[in-house]
Amino acid sequence: MSNDIAIQVKHLSKCYQIYETPRDRLKQFVLPRAERLLGITPRKHYREFWALKDISFEIKKGATVGIVGRNGSGKSTLLQIICGTLNPTIGSITTNGRVAALLELGSGFNPEFTGRENIYMNASVLGLAEDEINTRFDEIVSFADIGDFIDQPVKAYSSGMVVRLAFAVAINVAPEILIIDEALAVGDAAFQRKCMRKISDLSDAGVTLLFVSHDMETVKKICSEALYLARGVAIEFGAAKQVCISYERDLFGASRNAETTQTAKLPASSEQSQAVLDQDLLKTNEKTYGDGRAQISDISITSQHQQQTNILTPNTSYVFSYTVTFFAAVTTPVFGMMITNREGVCIFGTNTQPHPVSKRSFLEGDKLRIEFHLTNHLGPGIFYLTCGVHTAANSDGLVYLQRRMDALIFKATQNDDFNMGGMVNLNPRIEVTEEAP
Predict the structure, then answer these.
(1) What is the mean pLDDT of the chain?
(2) Residue 36: CB partners within 8 Å, gap ≥ 6?
(3) 3-state secondary structure string across the chain
(4) What is the pLDDT of residues 327-336, one digit of tens each?
(5) Nearest to 192 by CA among 379, 62, 65, 382
């Protein structure tokens, strides 16, 4: 295998023996031996199920590869064989580099051990010495963000806490290959966004990423390649966008379940006279930076009735706003906002560059309230709000006084009037004309 290949799979097949009854399992253990002694051709007391059939592909170092397919197509089996937790029936797997994996929920953890003990055990299995684990322990705990539960038995954790801890360990053992099964779907919106940021950072650092996802938009945006499995057979391996198109075509365009399951639907006649705050969206994992000359606070989304909300209905006006306090004299500041999706792709952004406020100077102690009045034309889904204040006061380009990334999480809903997919609601008007035969 060449040095630039991270994973090589050759003619891989996996067969399971399916027994109808426990008695058949006992027969298979005893009778074939007796039949061979008697010179009789042994009979099989089971039926074969081939979870994978003759799979071959290569993944280059630094590539990000998605695995797509219906439930039961062999995706998880393939990942387990690559990780070494399952043995293939036929074929071979070769990996080049340290492998870290986040497979089924809680795999690799002892439920009787505390989170702290499981960190040391899991990281040791992945090849870290104790002094290396000591060095990275605080970073693991910080990313997992499970508080005092770190010293409680894992059996007392919620599913989300288990995923947080498992992902934190996997990304902090300096993996060269990171393998993720659909486990991240368990986390809340804030944690999913945090993980996507980290996955992007790892990809930029040259880590090879291999993961299963039912979200085709995620695969298209962050993957360079994808593998499409169906009933254990590799249907297609190649450019992620083309593979996803093939998969979606086979599903007759019904592949957007992952996005819509997170989306609340409201009746078409619903008026949001009483704004809604979804408590599950209030916790964020924002990232803040800047030179300290200004501070952004009181970020909010309010309805037409001046009520704070994070549930946006279609074709309805909202105010996205924040307060800026200056701690030093600033010339010609620009105030901006950006809406991104879970993968960090900018859906919409704007700023005050052409507005008179950005042609003024401000002194220490000055305070402003910035409001962006928008009509919601987003498609259904979860979105993230970033706010920032910058200047272009030197030749190096933009200088952020402060930027708050993913400061708010909100959900855009859809009406029952029509079905749609994607990130933007273009308010279609559908006409059907019956033609004479």
Answers:
(1) 85
(2) 42
(3) CCCCEEEEEEEEEEEEEECCCHHHHHHHHHHHHHHHHCCCCCCCCCEEEEEEEEEEEEEECCCEEEEECCCCCCHHHHHHHHHCCCCCCEEEEEECCCEEEECCCCCCCCCCCEHHHHHHHHHHHCCCCHHHHHHHHHHHHHHHCCHHHHHCEHHHCCHHHHHHHHHHHHHCCCCCEEEECHHHHHCCHHHHHHHHHHHHHHHHCCCEEEEECCCHHHHHHHCCEEEEEECCEEEEEEEHHHHHHHHHHHCCCCCCHHHHCCCCECCCCCCCCCCCCCHHHCCCCCEEECCCCEEEEEEEEECCCCCECCEECCCCEEEEEEEEEECCCEECCEEEEEEECCCCCEEEEEECCCCHHHHCEECCCCEEEEEEEEECCECCEEEEEEEEEEEEEECCEEEEEEEEEEEEEEEECECCCCCCCCCECCCCCCCCCCCCC
(4) 999 999 999 9
(5) 382
- CB under 8 Å to 142, separation ≥6 — which residues? none
What order of strands is seen across the sheet that includes strand 233-239? 99-102, 177-180, 208-212, 64-68, 225-230, 233-239
Q: Is 253 exposed, middle or buried (0-12, 13-18, 19+ CB in 10 A)?
A: exposed
pLDDT for 259: 39
Q: Are 284 and 190 in contact (CB under 8 A)?
A: yes
pLDDT range class, residue 91, cuts 50, 70, 90 = very high
Query: What are the pLDDT digits (tens) for 408-431?
Result: 999 998 876 667 777 888 888 888
Q: Which residue would you say has higher pLDDT here, 145 or 184?
A: 145
Dmax (CA) of the chain: 99
**What distance in Å separates the CA atoms of residue 100 and residue 74, rounded to the nearest whole number?**
20
Please report the domains of the chain, with CATH numbers, ordered by start residue.
5-259 (3.40.50.300), 279-412 (2.70.50.60)
Q: For residues 413 and 307, is the Cβ–Cβ distance under 8 A? A: no
Helix (H, G, I), strand (E, B) or coil at 217: helix
Residue 36 has a pLDDT of: 83
The structure's pTM equals 0.64
